[in-house]
Design goal:
This protein has two domains: 55 residues; 93 residues, no CATH class. It has four helices and five strands; from the N terminus they run H-H-E-E-H-E-E-E-H. Strands 1-2-3-4-5 form a five-stranded mixed β-sheet. Helix 1 packs antiparallel against helix 2. The radius of gyration is 24 Å and the shape is elongated. This is Ycf51 family protein. Keywords: Membrane, Transmembrane, Transmembrane helix. Pfam families: DUF2518 (PF10726).
């Protein structure tokens, strides 16, 4: 994943290209080339591209990493107050707790709105089991609820459904 330093370097190169296109556009107007208006458009595009790269160099693009968390996949997100993640079926309860905390941190956004005055983001973790060929059954292993009011939430409510771990094949629980 590119870092802010990488985006700053991309901004410098894009800035140089923008200046080159601007000089070329001015030269095209002076010499009345047929492509002068295309060069103006290209210069405008390069200005927008440079500004975008510069803004990416200011804002860190980092994800929270919690030790012990397992990989997860975002399966459902209504963009408001509910999300579902999918984990491997061989996850342990301690890994699941760390994974839920990591997902709660990574999925937080100032743009999320609580539905009907509920300012809680609920993230449920599930895995799929296959009791027989051709049949998949989702098993919800836990959930976390966090506030949508502030970025830091020290009172996240993490619930692990230990009884559901018994349904998993080759359970580590």
């Amino acid at each position: 994943m590119p870092t802010t330093a990488n985006f700053l370097q991309y901004t410098q190169w894009s800035g140089i290209a923008t200046i080159a296109f601007a000089v070329l556009a001015i030269l095209a107007f002076i010499l009345k080339w047929g492509i002068r208006f295309r060069l103006v458009g290209t210069t405008g595009f390069m200005i927008v591209l440079t500004a975008g790269l510069f803004s990416l160099s200011l804002v860190p693009l980092s994800r929270t990493v919690i030790p012990g968390a397992a990989k997860y996949t975002l399966v459902f997100d209504n963009g408001s107050n509910q999300a579902v993640i999918s984990t491997a079926s061989d996850i342990t309860p301690t890994e699941l707790e760390a994974t839920l905390r990591q997902a709660a941190s990574n999925l937080y956004s100032y743009g999320r709105l609580g539905a009907a005055g509920n300012n809680q983001l609920t993230i449920r973790a599930r895995t799929l089991i296959h009791p027989e060929p051709g049949v998949s059954v989702p098993v919800y292993l836990g959930q976390v609820e966090r506030t949508l009011v502030s970025r830091e939430d020290s009172e996240m409510d993490v619930k692990i459904y230990l009884d559901k771990f018994a349904q998993l094949p080759e359970s580590k629980a």
